[in-house]
């Protein structure tokens, strides 16, 4: 073998040793499904449990609700000042006012932490409805992401400095606070298959133990009956041969008591199973 063949063989061995073997294949035919990726703008991820309440499209805009002229105006003129005939942002303002009134400290409170959170929550839910209808609107999507992160910072601050008010605002706005995880961890196929294999093996072990336990339970009554017969025989032989008696009557009575209790328990279990089947 010349130098060329030796070098070629050594290269082949070296390459075989460094072949990547990272894929974990299970022989148990366990199927792994990748978990669904939930976008950050989804209500399940943002923590918004409730949807926006329905609004009457014939309701007047906030600035014209107390107008006396519109009360007697023609329907065509009145429709120009209704929410259904105006841009979407006016409906968003309507929701903002409704949310703020739920949590504000006094009628002129628009700058407290509670009012800011209510305003952001109303806007977020309006944007989420918009994204459900127009999922390709990138401008609203970016604004929605920024607003959700901003609200999380406000909630984190409020949770730190006034926990009772933090719990109260979550209840009023129907929110769930989801803090970021302390340590991020990727969900991989290899690790998931290992966990599923461990679960499968644990189920097999438990099933076999349960099956073996049933076999032992079925043998309990014959075993006790046989043990009582043998103890009685040994005692009688010891009496006949006039040797020290090692098997007492209390010992035999104890075995008989255990046998009767076991039979009663089996009868109760059998009746209970029959009643459940009926």
- Low-pLDDT runs of 5+ residues are none
* Fraction in beta strands: under 5%
* Number of separate domains: 2
Give the integer mean of the pLDDT values: 86
Which percent bin holds the helix content?
Answer: 55-70%
Number of helices: 10
Order of helices and strands: HHHHHHHHHH
| Overall outline | elongated
Number of strands: 0
Describe the structure.
The chain is mostly helical and about 280 residues long. The protein has 2 domains: about 130 residues, no CATH class; about 90 residues. Helix content is about 65%, strand content about 0%. It starts with a helix and ends with a helix. The relative contact order is 0.08. The mean pLDDT is about 85. It is found in: Mitochondrion. It comes from Glossina morsitans morsitans (Savannah tsetse fly). Keywords: Mitochondrion, Ribonucleoprotein, Ribosomal protein, Transit peptide. It holds the Pfam family Ribosomal_S15. Belongs to the universal ribosomal protein uS15 family.
Question: What's the gist of this structure?
Answer:
The chain is mostly helical and 278 residues long.
Write the topology of this structure.
Elements: H1 3-17, H2 43-46, H3 75-79, H4 88-103, H5 113-133, H6 138-161, H7 163-173, H8 189-218, H9 220-240, H10 249-277
């Amino acid at each position: 073998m010349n130098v060329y063949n030796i070098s070629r063989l050594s290269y082949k061995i070296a390459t075989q040793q460094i072949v990547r073997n990272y894929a974990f294949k299970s022989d148990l035919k366990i199927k792994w499904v990748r978990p669904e990726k939930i976008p950050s703008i989804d209500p399940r991820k943002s923590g918004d449990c409730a949807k926006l309440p329905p609004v009457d499209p014939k309701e007047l805009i906030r600035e014209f609700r107390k107008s006396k002229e519109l009360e007697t105006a023609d329907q065509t003129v009145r429709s120009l000042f209704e929410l259904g005939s105006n841009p979407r942002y006016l409906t968003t303002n309507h929701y903002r006012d409704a949310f703020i009134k739920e949590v504000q400290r006094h009628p002129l409170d628009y700058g407290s932490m509670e009012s800011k959170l209510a305003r952001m929550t109303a806007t977020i839910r309006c944007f989420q409805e918009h994204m459900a209808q127009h999922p390709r609107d990138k401008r609203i999507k970016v604004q929605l992401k920024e607003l959700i992160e901003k609200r999380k910072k406000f909630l984190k601050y409020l949770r730190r400095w006034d926990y009772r008010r933090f719990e109260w605002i979550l209840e009023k706005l129907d929110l769930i606070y989801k803090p970021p995880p302390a340590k991020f961890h990727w969900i991989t196929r290899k690790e998931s298959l290992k966990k599923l294999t461990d679960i499968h093996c644990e189920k097999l072990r438990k099933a076999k133990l349960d099956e073996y336990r049933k076999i032992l339970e079925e043998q309990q009554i014959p075993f006790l009956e046989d043990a009582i017969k043998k103890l009685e025989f040994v005692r009688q032989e010891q009496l006949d041969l006039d040797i020290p008696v090692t098997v007492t009557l209390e010992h035999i009575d104890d075995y008989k008591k255990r046998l009767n209790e076991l039979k009663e328990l089996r009868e109760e279990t059998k009746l209970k199973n029959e009643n459940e089947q009926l």
